[in-house]
Amino acid sequence: MTTTHEEPPVTATTPVPGERAGEPVIEMRDISITFGSVRALDRVSLRLLPGEVHALMGENGAGKSTLIKALTGVYSIDSGTIVVAGEEHAFATPAAAQAAGISTVYQEVNLVPNLTVAENMLLGREPRRLGGINVRGMNRRARETLDRLGLDIDPSSTLGDHPIAVQQLVAIARAVDVEARVLILDEPTSSLDADEVAKLFEVMRRLREDGVAIVFVSHFLDQIYEIADRMTILRNGRLVEERMVADTTQLELVQLMIGRELEVLDRLDHEHTRTSTDGPPVLKAIGLSRKGSLEATDLSLYDGEVVGVAGLLGSGRTELARLLFGADTADHGSLEIRSSRRRLRSPRHAIDRKIAFSSEDRKAEGVIGDLTVADNMMLALQASRGWLRPIPQAVRNRLVGEYIEALDIRPADPQALMRNLSGGNQQKVLLARWLITEPEVLILDEPTRGIDIGAKAQIQAKVAELARRGMSVVFISAELEEVLRLSDRVVVMRDRRKIAERPNDDVSVSDILEIIAGHGGTPSARTEEESSRD
Amino acid sequence: MTDTLTPPEAGRRTASPVRGPRLVARLLASPLLWPVMALVVLLVVNVVATPSFLDVRLQDGHLYGNVVDIARNSAPVLLVALGMTLVIATRGIDLSVGAIAAIAGAVACTRIVGAGDEGAAATAIMACTVALAICVLLGLWNGFLVSVVGIQPIIATLVLMVAGRGLAMLVTDGQITTVNNDTFSNLASGFVLGLPLAFLVAVAMVAVTGVLTRRTALGMLIEAVGINPEASRLAGVRSRTIIWTVYVFGAVCAGLAGVIIAANTNSVNANSLGLWIELDAILAVVIGGTALTGGRFSLLGTVVGALFITTLARTIPNIGIPSEANYLFKAMVVVAVCLIQSPRARAVLRVRRTAPVARKGNPA
Known about the structure:
The complex is a heterodimer of chains A (about 525) and B (about 375).
Chain A: E1 26-35, E2 38-48, E3 53-57, H1 64-71, E4 79-84, E5 87-89, H2 94-99, E6 102-105, H3 117-121, E7 128-129, E8 132-133, H4 135-148, H5 164-177, E9 182-186, H6 194-209, E10 213-217, H7 221-227, E11 230-235, E12 238-244, H8 250-258, H9 263-269, E13 283-290, E14 294-301, E15 306-310, H10 317-325, E16 332-337, E17 340-342, H11 347-352, E18 355-358, H12 362-365, H13 373-385, H14 393-406, H15 423-435, E19 441-445, H16 453-468, E20 472-476, H17 480-486, E21 489-494, E22 497-503, H18 509-518, H19 523-533
Helix pairs in contact in A: 5-6, 13-15
Chain B: H1 2-13, H2 20-29, H3 33-49, E1 57-59, E2 62-64, H4 66-89, H5 97-114, H6 121-149, H7 153-172, E3 177-178, H8 182-189, E4 191-192, E5 195-196, H9 197-214, H10 218-227, H11 229-234, H12 239-265, E6 267-268, H13 277-287, H14 299-318, H15 326-341, H16 343-353
C-alpha cells in the first residue's frame, strides 16, 4: 500500500481498471453538479489511490474547483456517489469531510497571522490542561508534526512573521495533523519561488511515502511532471481521461486539456506588422499626466493599429489606460480625438467619443455578478442610450446571440448569471460589452490574465481581427510574448513614464527586458519595489 | 396590479413558456414563495381565531371587511416601501422617509387651513401638489448628500430624519392642525369602484414603478449600480443620476404616504405622523426578498411584504395578544419570517429532518 506511487504503467487511452495493489481511498463516480442553468460537472469520476500524487488538470472553468468542493462537502452533488474507503459518503459540511480524513489547503492561506505557528496548527483542537490550553504540549505536538515533514519552523513563532511560502507549509502541516488520508492542494505553488516549491515537493514526497493520497492542482506543467504520478483531465465539466503522467507528453496533455490544436496562436505570429501611421491619429495624448500615477506622456494611436504597452507592475501602464479613458482625470496635458481637443471628465465622455476600456481588475471593475450574461453584455450600450431608451428585445437577443457565438462563450445561455461563469468566459462577455458599443479605440488592460489558454487564444485572435477591420487597440499585458505577438508598435513604460517606443518589426522579449532594465536596476529588483508601492 | 407587473419580472428571469409541472416547479423556486407563504399563514391564523375574518360584504356600493381594511391601511407602508426598494437596490437606505411623510402631511394640512376656501377640491389638490413638490426638494437633498458629497446613506439620511421632524414642527407651529376638506379626507377613506382609494393610489404607484423599472432600462441600471458601482461607472452608467433619482422617488413616495396618513385623521401631528414608518418599510422590503446589500430587487415582493406588515398589525388585536406585548410579538414574527427565508436556516432544518443531505451552496 505504501509504494503504490511506483505502480505499473496503465494503458494510456482507456480508464484504468479497478483491481490493483491499493484500493482507492476515495472514488467519486459519475458526479454531476448544476448551478442554475450551468452544468458545472457532468458525470465526472475521480479515483485516488493511497500514496500517490494525483494531478487534477484542466483549463479554468473545466470543473477542477467544483470537483474539489464536491469532495470536501462545500457543494452538494446532484447525482453520483462518493465512496470513501469502501463506504458511500456524502459530506454535508467541510468539517464532516475533514473528520473523514480529507484535508484541503487552498491557494490563499486561511490561517490567523497573529497567532503562533503551533496555535494555528492546532486551532480548534488544542491540547487542554486544567481547563486551559496546554501551551507546552501544543508546541511539542506541533514540533513533532513539523519534524515529520522535515520542516524547521519554530512552533512558538508568530505565523505572520513568516513569508507566505512558510505559511503555506504550516497550512499543510495543519492539514496533516488531522490524520489526513487525503490532502488536497489547490494551486499551492502559485505564489512560491523555485526553492520554496522544492521544499513543498519534499514535504509532498514524505507524505506520499506515508500513504497519503495527494490531489495536486497547478497551472505549471513542469511541476506536474516533476511530482505527479497520475492525473485526471477535465474539460468543460466533463472527464476527458485518467492517465499516468509518465505516459503522456506535455503536448498531448495540453491537447487533452484544451481539446484542440494550438494552431490559433501560431497563426497569429505570421500576421501582424502592419503599420499605417499616415493620416491623423484617432487618439493622441500630449503630455498627459496625473500626480502620483503618470508623468507627462505622449502617445499617438492610428486607425487599425495595435499598440502594445509593456512594463512591470506599477510602471504606469494601467494609469495611462485609465487616463486615456477618463476613468481618472488628468492634471496636465491634453487629449486629441480625431484631431479635436477633448477633456475626458468621466468614462461616459470617453464612451461617447467611441473609446472603450476593459479594466485589469475583472471582478471589481468589470463583472456585474448578479446580473445575467445578456445584461452584462448590454450594459455599456444601454448606459450610453440612457435608461429611457431601452434596447428593443429583438435587437438585444440578436446582439447577445451573435457575440456568444462569435466569442464562443460558455455556457451559451444569455440568462446564465455572470458570477457562475469562469474567468475566461467572463472576460469574453466583457469584451462583448465593449464591442457592442462599436468603439473606434479599444483599450484592453490585461485582458488575458488568469484565464485559460483556449480563451486566451480566442481573445488574441479577436483582437487581431478587430485591428484588421480598422479598430485601434491599446493592448496592455504583463506577458511580453503576448504584447509582441499582437502589436504593431510597442510602448515600453517604467517608473510611471514612457521610456521607449518601437515599431514591432524585429523586437524580441529580451530587447524589451533590456530597455526596461537599461534604465537602472534589474527588472526583478524593480518588480519588488514597485509592487510594494501598491 | 399583478397584470402590470408579472410580465416584465417573469420575462427577465425565465426564457421559455411554462406549463403544468414546470409551472409548479417554478412557483416553488420563486423568491416570492416564502413571503407569500408567510402572509397565507398569518391569514390562516386569523381565520382560526375569527372564522369570519375573511368575510367581505358590499354596502352602499363599497366593500367592507377586514381584508379591505388591511388593503386600505397598507397604503402608506406600501408607498414608503416602494421607494425604499429602489433606494436599497442601489446599496442605499433612506431613514428620513418618516420625517418626510410628516413634512408632507404638515405642509398639505397647513396649506388647506390657510386657503381662502378650505373645503374646495381645488384647495386639496393644490395643497397636496405643493407638499409633493417639497418632497422632491427633500429627496434632492438626500440624493445630493449620498451621490455628490459621498456620505454613507445611513448617515446622510439620518440628518433629515432628525431635522425633518423639526421642520414639520415649524410648519405646523408645533400645533396639531385639523383640516375640514372632503376631497382631502377621501384620499384616505374614500372608495372608487368599491375599493379604498388609498389602496388604489398605492397600487397605481406600484404599477407605474413596475413599468418604469422593467419596461425601460432603469431597473437593470439600478441593479447594476447596486451590485458593482465601480464596474457600472466604467461601463458608462451615470450612477450619480440614478442614485439621485431613487432618493427623489423615495421622498415623493414618502410624501404621498404622509398625505394619506394626514387625510386619514384629517389632522397632522408633526411629532407622530409616520413615526417609525421607515422601519416598517425596510422590513417590508427585506421580507419581500430584496437584500439590504443592494442589487436585484422585487417590487412584487415588497407589495407582499407591506401587506404582511399591515396584516400583522391587524392580527395582534384579533388573536388577543395583550397590547403591552404588541411590539414583542411583532418582533418575534419578523424574526421567524426572516429565518424561514434564510437559506442557511432552512438547510439546518432540512438536515435535522433528513439525515445526511449535503448543503447546496453557490459557486464562489
